[in-house]
Amino acid sequence: MSSRLIRLLRRLYHYLVYVAGGVVIAVCIVALAFKFWLMPNVQSYQGVLEDAASKALGQAVDIGVMEADWSGLNPRLILRDIRVRADDAAAASPLYLPRVEAAFSWLSLALFDLRLAHLTLDQPQLQMRRDMAGLITVAGMPMNQPGGTSEFPDWLLRQPRIIIKDADILWLDEKLKAPELRVSGVRLLLENRFGRHRFGGIAQPTAAAARRLEMRGDLTGRSLRDWSAWNGEVYVRVDGARFESWGRWVPWAQESVRSGTGDMRFWLALSQGAVQGVSGDVRLGQVAINIDKALPDLVFDSLSGHAGWTRKQATQSFYVDRLRFKTPGEAVSEPAAVRVNLTPDAKGGAQRVGVSARNLRLEALTALTGALPIPKRGHDLIQLLNPRGMLAEGEGYWAGPKDYAIKLGIQAAGLNAYQWQGDIRWSRHDFVLAQYLSA
User: Fold this and answer.
1) Over pLDDT 70: what percentage of the chain?
2) Is residue 192 packed enough to be buried (19+ CB in 10 Å), middle (13-18) or exposed (0-12)?
3) 236 within a domain of the structure (yes/no)
4) What span, in angstroms and rounded, lies between the C-alpha atoms of 100 and 119?
């Protein structure tokens, strides 16, 4: 090793020693300031902290009691009886925090930004609201207003560990004129590391909606104001769902879903801020769905399967696997699979539609056609022919009047007599119909 390199390493070593010594001295000074200056007089800084919190949230904040001590090697601040004031003095507080524990991280000195080792919220009470104009507010902060989002949520995402214990959340939807939906016993753990956010939580919704709710997620993203940069997956599980009451809070269920109870779990895939796919398992009973007010309900004693939706470029796919259902007075259907691929055109129609199915019992489908929006002539023809048997495998597509194909594999099937011939029966038949565009 050359003498020049040795001198360089010695000089670097001395610089590192000086830097380390300076950091130690700075930390000691700050620690002594906390112990002998800030902690004994922490209550006197209550007004300063209230002003800072009010500025961060964009709402007036009141703090009841402040305490300070140590959590291991980290200074800790304990706040009690925190309230965010509502715009209407007579209204309830949109956020009430009985107890907040914040342990400060020493990284704050190096990053010149307030960082916490951990943040714990005990029994918070949060109000979420959607007004008649569609504006959603959380604790009084607008969430879907352009340029109106507070920086506070992004600051929370920079904290390494956030714990919420036994929260109570109230959802008010003025646009739907729905009754309040209360979710209690919310327990949530959120861990943030280098733009990666992992969370898990459980809750108990209003008894009329479900028995238990569970949610987990693994997402990446830096800012809620740049939602297009977010990616990841979210898992949701609902136990004891009661669909007859969901119409009060869920727009798509208001007219179509009449009743049903059961369990569901879903996985949601997010890419660049857009949902790319949803898949899930359902196990339901006593289900009633209405597609058209002029038609009877689709009624199932039981309904189960794995359903999903995916999007790849312009093509969207809807599928159901292991589909089993039982209609009143009938046996449980064999496990079936159905997939529909749809490519829209520029006019809002369909450029191409592809359908595939497997293991479908024709009698079960026939029993459901009375509740489907099919022309009366079609209903009458289905009832007259009374198709029966098994669609072992089928696939087809339609891309225009001169570009389509259908291939069906039917087993142990038959039709009633019709105008031109008697009963039709066959043990196995492959049916192919195709029309292709000419070159």
Assistant:
1) 86
2) middle
3) no
4) 7
**Element housing 111 (H / E):** helix 107-111
Instruction: Inform me whether the pLDDT recorded for 235 exceeds 80.
Output: yes
Determine the Cα–Cα distance for residues 430 and 389; give it in Å rounded to an integer.
13
User: Which DSSP category does 90 fall into?
Assistant: T
Distance CA 21, CA 16 (A): 8
CA dist., res. 358 & res. 336, Å (int): 6
Question: Quick check: 36 pLDDT over 70?
Answer: no
Looking at the structure of the chain, the number of domains it has is 1
pLDDT of residue 200: 97
Query: Per the structure block, which two tokens stand in for 420?
Result: 């031109």
Is 31 within the bounds of a domain?
yes
Chain segment 352-388, per-residue pLDDT in tens: 888 888 888 877 777 767 666 666 776 777 777 777 7
- Structure-block tokens of residue 389: 């048997």
Residue 359 has a pLDDT of 87
Cβ atoms of 70 and 102 closer than 8 Å: no
pTM (predicted TM-score): 0.78
- Are 171 and 181 a contacting pair, CB within 8 Å? yes
Question: How many Å apart are CA 266 and CA 333, to the nearest integer?
Answer: 23
Is residue 90 in a domain? no
Q: Which two tokens stand for residue 132?
A: 């008649």
pLDDT above 80: residue 251: no
User: Per the domain annotation, does 204 fall within a domain?
Assistant: no
Instruction: Give 294-320 as a 3 state SS string.
Output: CCCCEEEEEEEEEEEEEEECCEEEEEE
Domain interval for residue 11: 1-38
Could you tell me which residues are beta bridge partners of residue 192?
A: 197
Other residues' Cβ atoms within 10 Å of the Cβ of residue 3? 7
Predicted pLDDT of residue 438: 39
8 Å CB contact between 325 and 331: no
Which residues is 203 bridged to in the sheet? Answer: 213
Distance of CA 276 to the CA centre of its chain: 12
Beta strands in 195-349 (DSSP E): 196-205, 212-220, 231-242, 257-271, 274-289, 298-312, 315-326, 336-344
